[in-house]
Write a structure and sequence with these properties.
This protein is of the alpha+beta class and 300 residues long. The protein is 40% helix and 18% strand. The chain is built from nine helices and nine strands. The longest helix is centred in the last third of the chain and has 22 residues, at 237-258.
């Protein structure tokens, strides 16, 4: 049976009906599974029981609503909790702080982030060419759900399927998973207007390329380097993706309009991820965005 596809359908259904009183029995009937078989398969594929998965997704959505200024009592009821006290206890357990304190922190962060983008400092740097080995992800082949909406934003890699390459092969390629990584949109077929997303580690050479991955050479260029506002990557990948996307939007909608530079179209722009900027367990991770630029020549 196509369990992977069925679990994707199940998660999509959950996201579309998260505000409703859905049960494991409802989901089993939706997939055409027996109740026992569904509960067994769901736990294996998601590492959580259906009840725990629903609770966690509702709390994550509640966290997003808090960041938008929603009232805690209303958010608690909409998240399926009968009392504010029950919601507060569950929220504290999931995120390590009270909902009230978290709301205050998120609102302050959002205010700081907007001010930060308005006066964002840009570092100009020369970076020599380098090599990378990674996945080539075709958006046309990616199934999208409401949960993976982050893939429509920046950091497209966040919800990509990397199961085609074993963890052992990737660790060997990345020399123990400590290598810097890049993400960028590129054109794999010069005869097509389709773009693929590349994600993988920076390498010294192409001596080892796992099956299913591709090589990429990024030419040297002069860059404008932007740093995203910090986000809690450990608990909220959506928020991290939003920060990356907001920075991309700022660059093309505002910065270029006010700068003395133009995009160097013969080069590649890319997202740069390094452990020094926070890994997957970081609560204040950032990304660097490298934009190849050329100085505008003054007339006369």
């Amino acid at each position: 049976m196509p369990y992977k596809r069925d679990m994707e359908r199940c998660r999509d259904y959950i996201e579309a009906h998260l505000d409703e009183n859905i049960t494991a029995q409802d989901l089993a009937e939706f997939l055409g599974y027996s109740f026992y078989h569904f509960c067994h398969v769901f736990r294996i594929c998601n590492s959580l029981s259906i009840g725990e998965y629903l609770r966690r997704r509702r709390l994550q959505r509640a966290r997003e609503a808090l960041g938008q200024g929603g009232r805690i009592t209303e958010i608690a009821l909409k998240s399926g909790f009968e009392t504010s006290a029950g919601f507060a206890k569950a929220f504290q357990k999931e995120f390590g702080m009270s909902a009230r304190a978290h709301k205050k922190m998120l609102l302050q962060h959002n205010e700081h982030a907007e001010k930060g983008r308005m006066g964002m400092q840009v570092k100009m740097a020369r970076k020599e060419g380098f090599k990378a080995v990674g996945y080539s992800i075709s958006p046309q082949d990616e199934r999208k759900s409401r949960e993976s909406k982050v893939s429509d934003l920046g950091a497209y890699w966040l919800h990509a399927d990397f199961s085609s390459v074993s963890k052992e092969d990737y660790a060997k390629l990345a020399k123990g998973e400590i290598a810097d990584e890049i993400g960028l949109w590129f054109q794999p077929d010069q005869e097509s207007d389709n773009l693929n997303y590349f994600f993988g580690p920076v390498v010294e050479d192409f001596a080892y390329v796992p099956r299913g991955m591709v090589t990429l050479e990024v030419p040297g260029a002069d860059y404008a380097v932007f740093t995203t506002c910090p986000a809690d990557l450990a608990h909220d990948r959506f928020a991290f993706g939003q920060e990356v996307q907001k920075t991309w939007e700022y660059i093309f909608e505002e910065w270029f309009e006010e700068s003395d530079y133009i995009f160097d179209q013969e080069k590649l722009a890319f997202e740069f991820y390094t452990n020094e900027n926070g890994g997957m367990d970081s609560m204040s991770a950032v990304a660097n965005i490298y934009i190849p630029v050329k100085k505008i020549k003054e007339n006369g």
